[in-house]
């Protein structure tokens, strides 16, 4: 268990660092088209969707014993996870720099802090998913999830950095902020690892809870953002390619 915990933490940190790696192109060019960005974000959504399906929901049903009872436990976890993130999103003051919307309760915080809160809300479920993916000492499943989350973090890191540059932040500061937002994920990873270590009987529910939170992020934030600029077709193909890539990774590595 100790080895699993260590590997899980390292995997969570690695997945989070991929956000910074994705932001590196801003040092070389700012001229990344919105069409390309929407396609890349669509790819991220597809990877998340496949990771949710194959690495969280299916194992949740299996750990719950399968059959109708297993499906009901998993369904409850998905819904609770989605509701939890909905309430967090609704009552936490934050701003989305990608589309300039402010949400949550009013607060007299600087805009950058509102943005960081938004990224924290967004990235926390991904770290949680990686952590619970190591449940039942399943290092293989956890590593596959970490790889998938790392892949989808790269276009998100680029999108965050570009948004900050457009808000007149320097490339260096935009990169550092994008990197730091990715490091929210190890916090979620630690919580997920802790939960499955001390509350093993609720592993199926915990996996499904992480899946529900991830599904909420995909539907509520990423897909609407990719469709906002009129590049729905490119984003849709991005989702399909991301889903296929993650499905292949899950089958070949799993």
TrEMBL record:
It is found in: Cell membrane. The chain crosses the membrane at residues 6-28, 40-61, 67-87, 108-124, 144-165, 174-196, 202-223, 235-253. Keywords: Cell membrane, Membrane, Transmembrane, Transmembrane helix, Zinc. It holds the Pfam family Zip. It is a multi-pass membrane protein. It comes from the Bacteria. Belongs to the ZIP transporter (TC 2.A.5) family. This is ZIP family metal transporter. It comes from Tissierella simiarum.
